[in-house]
Amino acid sequence: MILDFKQIEETVMPNFKGGEKEMAAKMYADEKTRIMLNRLVPGATVGLHTHEGSSEIIYILEGNGKVLYNGEEMRIEKGQVHYCPEGHEHSLINDTDADLVFFAVVPQQ
User: Fold this and answer.
1) How far is 70 from 84, CA to CA, in rounded Å?
2) How many CB atoms are closer than 10 A to CB 76?
3) What are the tens digits of pLDDT across the range 51-74?
4) How many whole angstroms separate alpha carbon 61 and alpha carbon 6?
5) How many CB atoms are closer than 10 A to CB 89?
6) Beta-carbon neighbour count of residue 3 at 10 Å?
7) pLDDT at residue 109 above 80?
8) What count of other Cβ atoms lies within 10 Å of the Cβ of residue 29?
9) pTM for this structure?
């Protein structure tokens, strides 16, 4: 299967997971996995949440920002991956003046 994100419509989600501002996403989902190309606008956040029944892999394609992971804050930049296993909490923060673009995969347990 080939997923062509150029052909998938972008959906804008205000206050995603209780976060600030908005995240735009191009998504594919089936019963086992969600695959997303996401964009956090400057100043936007993905709200702090715990993964129950899934994990998440985030690969930064453009920009940089911060990850909150189990109470620890760390910087993340283009080319790096953040992994949040099931049962752990995290948030992604774009604290810059440029879009933060990332690829995310959420396999369902």
Assistant:
1) 9
2) 21
3) 999 999 999 999 999 999 999 999
4) 15
5) 13
6) 12
7) no
8) 11
9) 0.94
